[in-house]
Amino acid sequence: MNQQEHNKTPGREFALKFLFQLFIKENVDLKERFLSSSVNKEDLEEQLIEFKESYLQPDEEHQDNQIDDKNFFFACKLVKGIALHMSRIEELIKAETKRESLDNIEKIERCVLLVGTEELFYFDTPYQVVLSELVGLAKKYGGENSGRFVNGVLDGIRGKKN
Q1: Which residue range is the domain that position 13 belongs to?
Q2: Does the pLDDT of residue 105 top 60, yes or no?
Q3: What is the H or E stretch that residue 62 is in?
Q4: How far apart are CA 153 and CA 94, in angstroms?
Q5: Total count of domains within the chain
Q6: Helix or strand or coil: residue 46?
Q7: pLDDT at 1
Q8: Do the domain assignments include residue 4?
Q9: Does the residue 41 lie in any domain?
Q10: CB of 29 closer than 8 Å to CB of 93
């Protein structure tokens, strides 16, 4: 790893947890605006900063949450990109999973797929890195078969990039 590169895992994990809280919280308005790609940029930045403040507060569930400025910037770029490209990303995931709706996919898997698809399509990260990182997060936070599911879907989506 050279000076320019750094471990982006904490940024991906932050983005994943930010998205996940959108799907489990009662903030239906923000979730709907996010899903329809109509979230206001300033509102989203405010939400990300608020989430960061709570994210860094140690508690029983999140004792090891850490994020430096580079990873926070990376996470914000991921989340803002997902908000911007949401309909395209969801269409790619629906096509690959052969589903009419993504509402019946486990929330954590859906969030992992959103982050992974955004990074595969709109970032210069090598696909092997994206698959490895996102499969790792799926295994860490998802169910028994989440890693295999995420790997298969992201690998299929990667094939549609060109």
Answers
A1: 9-158
A2: yes
A3: none
A4: 10
A5: 1
A6: helix
A7: 40
A8: no
A9: yes
A10: no
